[in-house]
Amino acid sequence: MTSPSTPAASPADARLDALRDWLAPLAARHGFDPATLAPASADASFRRYFRVTGDGGRSFVAMDAPPPQEDVRPFLHAAEQFRRTGVKVPAVHAQDADLGFLLLEDFGHTPYLNVLDQSTANVLYAAASKALVAFQAGGDKTAFPAYDEALLRREMELFREWFCGRHLKLELSDADHRMLDKTFELITASNLAQPQVLVHRDYHSRNLMVVEDGFPGPGIIDFQDAVIGPITYDLVSLLRDAYIEWEEPQQMDWAIRYWELARKAGLPVNEAFGEFYRDFDWMGMQRALKVMGIFARLAIRDGKTAYLNDIPRVAGYARKVAERYGAFKPLLELLDRIEGRQAVVGYTF
C-alpha cells in the first residue's frame, strides 16, 4: 500500500515501470541500455512506442499495447504475412503477447510525411506503389478477415454519429437519414464489387518510413488491422492522404503509374483506367466519410483534438467526388450544409 503522502502511480506509469522490467533481461542479449528508454511516438489507439539505444547507435522500438484495450497478436500475425510478400516490416526481436510488449526493429525517425515535397514525391510514391503491388499480389487471402459489408457500413456510420451528430451537433432529418442509408448502400455495393486483395487499411505517409539501410522501398508499420478487401483502398489511403494533399492531376498521374504496375503484376484491376478511377473515387468516398468520423471521435472521446485540423482536407476529397457523380448529389447538399456549420466552429473545407 502507499502512504497518504505518496501518490499512487498512474496506470500509464505502472505500464512504463512494467515495460522497464520486461526490457531489463533483454538488454544484454540485444545490446541496448534500458536507461535510454524514451518516448518515440504514439498513435490514434492506446498503443505507445518507446526507443532504446545501445553502443554504436543501434536502436530498437518497444511497443506498449495495454490489454485489454489492445492485443499484439494481430500485429504479430500481420507482420509475418506481410513479410512473406517481400515488403519490409519491422522484425520482432522479443515478445510477450499476454503483457502486451514487443521489442521491434527500429525504422528510424523519418516517416514519408516528413520528407514529402515536389522534389521527393515521385521517388517515394513509386517505391510505395511497388510495395503495394507486391503485398497485394502476394498476400494470402485466407489469412485475414474480409472487409465485408458490415465493416464498410459500420465505418461510414462514424460520419453520421461522430462527425455530424457529436462534433457538429447537426440535427439530421428523417430525409437526411434515409439519404445517408441509401448513399452508404450504394458505396458499399461499389466497394464490394471490386477485386479483393490484402489491404493494409492505413497505407499513408505516417505509416511509411524512409528506411536507412538501403532497402529500395518503404518500411511499413501499423498494419495490424489488415483485411481482405477492395483493391483500390490502400491506393486511396496513399494518394488521398489525410495528412498531405496533392492536386488531383498529380493524384491521377500516380494512380496511372500504380495501375500500370498492377496490370504487369497480374493483379485484377479494371482494364479500362477510367473504370478503375471510378472505383478509386467511390472507395475514396467511403474512406473520407470514415476518417471524418474517426477524427471527430478521437477529438471528442479521446481528447486528441489535433486530428480536427485534418478534417477539412478529408472533407475536400469527399466534396470533389460528390461533385463528380450524380448519385452523390443528395450527399453534396448535406456537405453544403456542413460547410456552413463548419465555418461557424472555425473549420472550412
Secondary-structure blueprint:
Layout (H helix, E strand, L loop, with lengths): L10 H13 L3 H4 L7 E5 L5 E6 L5 E6 L8 H12 L7 E5 L4 E5 L6 H4 L5 H18 L10 H19 L6 H20 L2 E4 L8 E2 L9 E2 L6 E4 L2 H7 L8 H17 L8 H30 L8 H14 L4 H17 L4
Antiparallel strand pairs: 1-2, 2-3, 3-5, 4-5, 6-9, 7-8
Helix pairs in contact: 5-9, 6-7, 6-10, 7-10, 8-10, 10-11, 11-12
Written account of the structure:
The structure is a single chain. This protein has 349 residues and is α+β, with helices and mostly antiparallel strands. It folds into 2 domains: 95 residues, Phosphorylase Kinase, domain 1; 234 residues, Aminoglycoside phosphotransferase (APH), C-terminal lobe (Aminoglycoside 3'-phosphotransferase, Chain: A, domain 2, Alpha-Beta Complex). The protein is built from 12 helices and 9 strands. Strands 1-2-3-5-4 form a 5-stranded antiparallel beta sheet, covered by helices on one side. Strands 6-9 form a two-stranded antiparallel ribbon. Helix 5 runs parallel beside helix 9, helix 10 runs antiparallel to helix 11 and helix 11 packs antiparallel against helix 12. The N terminus and C terminus are likely disordered.
